[in-house]
Each structure stands twice: as structure tokens, then as C-alpha cells.
Amino acid sequence: MPYTKRVAHYGSPKDLIEYILDEKNDGEKVEIASSINCNVETAYSEFIRTQRRFDMQGNRVAYHAIQSFSPDDNITPEQANEIGKRLCEELYPNYQCVISTHTDRGHLHNHICINAINLDGTKLDDRLGNEKEGLYGLSNTSDKIAAEYGCYIMPQRKFSKIKNKDYYYQYKEQTWKEKIREDVEDIIMKCSTLEEFLNELSILGYEIKRGKNIAVKITGMKKFARLGTINSKYSEHELYKYFKGQNDLKLLSIKTNKTEFNTKLFEKTNESKIAIEKSQLATEGKVYNEYQKTKYQEVKRYYELKKRLEYLDMYNITSFEDIDTNIENIRLEIKNRNKEMKKNKDDINKIIELTEKAQDYIRLYKIYEYAMYYKSLDENYSMPTEVEIFLKLQEELKISSVDEAKKLIKNTREERIKINQLKKEILDFQRELNHLDTIKEERLTDSGLFIHNIKFGGNHIDYKKSDDENFCINLPYTKEKIYIPKRYTAYNEKYQYYTLFLVDDKQYEVYGENDKKIGNITGTELDKYVMERKKDIDKMYSKN
Q1: 3-state secondary structure of 400
Q2: In 3D, which of 230, 90, 205 has the Cα closest to residue 146?
Q3: Which run of H or E residues covers position 388?
Q4: Quick one: pLDDT at residue 246?
Q5: How high is the pLDDT of residue 164?
Q6: Do 437 and 490 touch, CB atoms closer than 8 A?
Q7: I need a surface site. Which of 204, 378, 379, 528 has the fewest CB within 10 A?
Q8: Per-residue pLDDT averaged across 323-349, rounded?
Q9: Could you tell me the strand order of the sheet in which 225-226 lies?
Q10: Residues β-bridged to residue 68
Q11: E-strand spans in 375-494?
Q12: What is the pLDDT of residues 426-469, one digit of tens each?
């Protein structure tokens, strides 16, 4: 952002016009000068004529505006003058202005002389409250125009005053979208697969949530944000398209053999594969937007079905008992890794926090450089809050350069990869568990031995009272609870609910609010009991 300043000029506009056209006072006129509503050569006489015409009162005869560009702003003197002229045309369209561009002092800067009264006889309103003619209008308009020429513009952020003046978290709250965009753009070009892309985000400290949409979370965020909301080109659909070339999709053949146990799943997978291949042939060379959406969903479904087949083959599952055994083994693996994560939680958080702060140091360095440069031009320049944050990070990290910050990030990469590997293992096991749970639910449903219409969310499980073999479940719509073997519950990851399977005529113990047994109930009666309570609650809400 160009540094801007404006002061009132008293006495005669002649002194100011001569100064800006000959700042060195050596008799050499500047080569680049322009004007609006007057001529550069006769500006003084035209200024005086306008002032006399309207009998202008007061000793403020003109205004001197300065617009200084950083040496890092890659613009020519001609472009600098053009920016200054456009600034006057937008802010002072009816005022007489002279714009002079100087190339000395190691940086480009414009001096602008503005007549205190315009061609309609109205004096310039320089109060801060005036959005156009006030100082804020000068700064904001200068930034807007300069940005079009590639000049760096400092972000406009607001910070609330706090006692300890630690503004870092406020900075994080305001910049997480900006950071995600920067990180995604930097990482995506280096990755060849979606998994690699998500792994690299994890290594930077992002929490990743996979589901219908890919969502991420990092310091400063109160909840997960979908990548597709930040930019539509980062949606799961677009990312799959980018990495997999979905328009040229070639489905891999089903390598799993059909068995007595996997017959139904095998047939579903094969039907999905055939449907996609036939529709691709029918639409070859044509574009149907609605078809592409449907195709995407079907391809996704196909890979989910295919993955389940592969799990059955991978774990040599040929019975319900095999499914249940593998589910218990995977739960144990997840539990062990979560223990390791919990055990090293402080070290993990410290590494991630250190890396994030080093990255923010690098991001804030540019603001610091520009601010220090503007301070060298004007000792009264008010430093942005980001400079205070930058200096505090520098002190905390004990570094003094961007190179040191990059080295710090590099030195923690191995640890971050290990952390990410642990997270990835938990996530992969969780996916396997979800697939096996889905197969388990289908098997229990198809068996005909159970009723299966009691469904509940994870919030109905009392984990403190559950153990490795049993879930303590708060029955939906009631205040009672039962203990049920985990092997007779299945989790549906797609819809995010558990299904409780009950043997019709088996007796189940029911407990009240104080964990006192209040009786026995069969599976069929329990199902009816829960549904009756649901009806009672529905009636109660309908009356209200």
C-alpha cells in the first residue's frame, strides 16, 4: 500500500506548486507532471482566479498530498504519475490539481497540490468523517487504484484492545480463510493424489474431516470449514476431478472373487460398475451437467462397495463371527493409537503451534518490512498491530529472519510427519471399521433373527459405563438404559447413527435413572416400548 499523507497549505499556492515541481530547489523541473482542471504551466494563476471568483475566505489556500511507493512495488515513474492522476480524478473531480512524480530519495513518490476550493465554489471538506474527501478516503482510494498496478496493499484488520496486548489469537481468527487459501494453492501443485494433498495439509497442522465434504480446522477456527465453501474449486467433487481426471475415468476391474458369503455385495458392486461403463459409452463426446453429478455419486458408491469387497478378501472374512472379530481388533488398534496421541498430546500441540507461528512470522514479514519503510518516511506513521504481533513472534521463536523461520519449519517436518502418520492410521482404521460396520449391519438385517428399527446417535451411548464388550445405551425417548453386547450394534457412517439389534424373544435387563434394575423386557416389547415413547413425545410437541 502506498504511504499517503495530506496537510493544509497556508499563505500562497505559488510556493507549494513551485516546490512540488522543483523539490530539490535546483531549478530543474521534474520530468513527469500532470494535472486535472488546469494546466501544469499556468496552475498558480488558475488557482488564484478560482479563489477570487468565489471570494474564498480563510488562510488555507491549498492542500499538499504525498503518495509514496515502496521500492518493492514494481511500477514505473509513468505508472506512479498515472496512479496519482486517477486518485485526483476519483476524489477531487471538480478541483484543480497538479500531480508531480519524483524519482529521487530511492523511491517513487507523488506530490499533489490541490486547490482548497473547487470550480463550483465549495471548499474541500477534510474532516475524518468525510468518507471521500477525508484522510481515510485518500488512503483507501489510493490503495484501491494502486492494487490494480500490482502494488502491495496492507490488509485492513480490526483488533480489540485487550489488557495484555496479545493480539495473536485475534489475528488468527481474522486470517484463517486467507491462510487456508494460501496453503492449498501452495500444496496442490506439488501433489499427484488427493490423499497426498490431504496428508500435506495434515503435516502443516490441519485437522481433516472426511465425509460428504472435506473440511479442515486450524488455530483461530471455532469449527471445521468446508474447503468448497472457501473456494468452490476446492470442493470434494472438484478435487476428485483435479486429481483423478474424472471425465476420463477408467474403472478398475473387480479383482475379488464371488463367494457364497459376499454374493449380494458382489452383485451390487458389479451392477454399479456396469451401469457406469454403459452410461459412459452412451454419453461419449457429449456433455450433460446433471448426468455428471449423478455419475459422480454412482462412482463414489461403486468405490465404497468395491472397498467393502476388498476388506472381506483382505481379512479373509467368511462369516459374521469373522466380521465381529475384525471389528474388535480394529477398535483395539484405534484405542491404542488414541492412547499414544493422548500420551504425547502436549508435545504434539507444541510442535504444531511452533510450526504455525513460524509460518505466521513469514506471512507477517512483508507487512513488517513495508511498515518499517513507511516509518522511515514519517516518524509519526502509526504502525499496524500486525507489526506488534510479528515482533512478539520473533521474540518467542528466538529468530531474526525469514530464513531462520523456514529452517525451524524444516526441522519440525519429521516430527509432523510422524504425528500425521499416527492420525492417518487412526483415520484409516476408522474407515475400515465403518466399512465393516456397514457389512455387519447388512448381515444382521438379512439374517431375519433380529428386529432392527431402534436407531440412535452416538450421544445415547454412556461411554463411562460401557466396557470392552458392552455398550451402556440410554434408550431413545426414555430415561431408561440397557446394556447390550457391542457385537449386536452397528454404526452407519453415511447417516451417522447406530442400529441396535435385538433378539425378538430374548429377555433384556432394563435400568432406571439411578442404575437400579427395574425389570426385564423382550426384544419385541422393547422395540414397541421405545416407539410408544416416541409417539408420546411427538404428541406433546404437536400440542405446543
Answers
A1: coil
A2: 90
A3: helix 385-397
A4: 40
A5: 63
A6: yes
A7: 379
A8: 89
A9: 207-209, 215-217, 225-226
A10: 3, 109
A11: 450-456, 470-474, 481-485, 489-492
A12: 888 888 888 888 888 888 877 777 766 678 888 889 988 998 88
Distance CA 518, CA 512 (A): 6
Q: What is the spatial distance between Cα 293 and Cα 279, in angstroms, rounded to a whole number?
A: 13
**Paired strand residues for 99:** 34, 112
Distance between CA atoms of 179 and 182, rounded to whole angstroms? 5
- Where do runs of H (alpha helix) occur along 150-211? 168-188, 194-203
Integer CA distances (angstroms), 344 to 200, 331, 337, 341, 350, in order: 21, 20, 11, 5, 10
Round to whole Å and give the CA distance between 501 and 483: 12
Q: Give the 3-state secondary structure of 220-274.
A: CCCCCEEHHHHCHHHCHHHHHHHHHCHHHCCCCCCCCCCCCCCHHHHHHHHHHHH
Cell representation of residue 497 = 447413527
On the question of pLDDT at 119 being above 80, the answer is: yes
Distances (CA, A) of 434 to 166, 297, 404, 441, 489: 43, 19, 44, 10, 12
Q: C-alpha angle 193/196/197, rounded to 5°?
A: 85
Q: Which three cell numbers stand for residue 467?
A: 466396557
> pLDDT tens digits for 246-268?
444 455 678 888 888 888 888 88
